[in-house]
Amino acid sequence: MTHDLPSRTRAALAALLAASLATPAGAQQPATYNGPCDASAAVALDTSHFIVANDENNTLAIYRQGHPAPVGTLDLADFLGTAKGDESDIEGAATIGQRIYWIASHGRNSKGKARPDRQRFFATEIVPGQPPGVRTIGQPYAGLLRDLLATENLKPYGLDEAARRAPEAEGGLNIEGLAATAEGKLLIGLRNPLHRQKALLIPLDNPAEVIAGQRALFGTPMELDLGQRGIRSIERIGNDYLIVAGPPADQGSFALYRWSGQRHDAPVAITGTDLKNLRPEALFALPGSAQAQLLSDDGGLSVDGVACKKLPADRQGFRSQQLNTGKAPAK
Description:
This protein has one domain (about 5-325): Tachylectin-2, Chain A. Helix content is about 10%, strand content about 35%. It contains 5 helices and 22 strands.
């Protein structure tokens, strides 16, 4: 992961992104970054650096904006207690103060086999510096799914049955979104299942206590109409939230929505964007600005006729696009 992508590979990825994403006025040019193709969760560490998880291994990578090679990594395998060679399928991240909360998919594998390693909720803390770093804090929590299934006001959503299915099967369980609220709580966004063709958003009321080993407490869930799509990523910017919506399974279209955060308000589709073959899996706010950054999960993207995740490690990478949201930064 320490070498730049070959210029041919970087050019191919950049060309695909330039052709596939039209952004509002003020958007920066697309960029490509070295590392696993499957960028799945990310947050900003400061105005110049961001940290990325992927769903293929348990390593976090820190990047400087505009520079392809990572400037730091953190191997989480021992901390998460995962078996050798297994991944925790980290899918969402959200920042509260200097603390970053991370959530895994909590789903089974593609064949419907139980994968306890994917049942993880944990936190890291930002360590200021040049470049900044992160360190683990608290302990990884493996009981979140148990707590979800035991919560009375979630029982009508059939999550117990969903948890027995493959994550991309109809009605399967797959967590992909995580966002902070102004009150210091978290919102968990489900890619799957949909409920009455709407995406589910579940408040987590006590994240700090959870990484200290206490049971998770959930608020009243919300149902969001995202055009029969699930939540791939969600981020608070100003007083609103930006949502990346995508298909519950592998096939379907992606779209961006703005939502007020009020349960009775409908999300509004953001026009003027054309995501086409971009597969945005991570969305995060850039500190002190009205800009957000999208990262694409490019594992299945064909580069010279080969899926990105099948390329040699030194040829893999993911695409990124910044866009102006037109909103003030979150306080």
